[in-house]
What does this fold into?
Amino acid sequence: MKKTKGRILVVDDEKSMREMLEIFLKSEGYSVAVAENGEKAVEKVKKDIFDLVISDMKMPKIGGLELLKNIKEITPDTVVVIMTAFGTTESAVEAMKLGAYDYLQKPFDNMDVIRHRVSKALGNQKLQKDVSILKQQLKPPSLENIIGKSQSMQTMFSVITKTSESNASVLVIGESGTGKELVAKAIHSLSPRKDNHFVAINCAAIPEGLLESELFGHMRGAFTGAASNKQGLFELANEGTLFLDEIGEMPMNLQAKLLRVIEGGTFRRVGGVSDINVDVRIISATNRNLQNLIDQKQFREDLYFRLNVLSVKIPPLRERRDDIPLLMGHFLKKFAGDKKRFSRQATELLSNYQWKGNVRELENITERVVLLCDSDVIDVENLPDEISFVSKSEKVVVPSGGMDIEKLLEKTEKSYLLKALEKTNGVKTEAAKLLNLTFRSFRHKLKKYGIDKKIITD
It folds into this structure.
């Protein structure tokens, strides 16, 4: 289907004016509908989506100003231009106060006036959308904003660069906290679509009943609370990129509608009757095994193949330990500038931690220790208990005169038993879980070392 420059509704009770504007605007590449009075215009606005309404001021029953009020209630984003042959300064001011973008005096000197005013009005509408998007996000970063020197990250960088050259759908796979949205933004910023919008949504964070409206928009009255027409994220991302995070959480009924958009480039707003055409590249992400969800009948196989044309896998942080000191330095500079540094022991400890929450966990912990540490040097004692407790980085020294390994191991085991009980306020079942022991095994060890008090103190 041929792409139009915008959808315009022309409202005028004079047939010759309607036809003249319809013919001219279509020749300029716009999609045009007409209405012979305000009542029919209101009906059309309720059922269809228009970027611009050009309306006469003087019409029977519902005049231009009343029509303007109705339009702004139904679809606030639609731009309205009022035209009249009986214009006064007072009527022009009133129209602008009610939300009209422009005011035209008839008859027109030439059609260049219409061409210029329509172009300017729609350009302003696009600018308002751009500002709305920019308020919600930072400029998409380039590849240089993703930190990593490890071999696995270099391989990923190469895949991102090649992937960005295509318009095909991309599936980003990685554990929670690995930076899937950052990768999606990098793909967008390196692609031919970089000058258009990058729009993101977390499918798991939006209630099922609202997710469809967020993606596709809705018409006024489509459901309780739908007080006006609303554009969805697909419209906002037109000619750009839409990032669908946690795609595995999308309900099955919406998966079918998403598949339709991918295959045909069209959708309808909730409660709408007209198809909307969009050109959107979809990047989706998941930390779940979609193949398992397919086997469990929780994810559509045909949608999976459409989303997974290209894929990028992000390695977890524990598999690229060489990058941990780099990330620590990056986050430390972000939260403390040049005022603080990690000690060598703290750096070793953090580099050997498992980081189940990946980069996000590292960022959060760095922010926390910066806020709580008064010293210029962040040392081991400043780190959270969960990190120092599971440390495997303690320096091991074997004395030249030898040692009793059994006694040392017993002492270490007893120390951990006491620490676990201290952390759980003496609750043995919780302490056993903390050490990954069965309660029976934990109770046996307590008896072995003569630890039988409920509340332990050092």
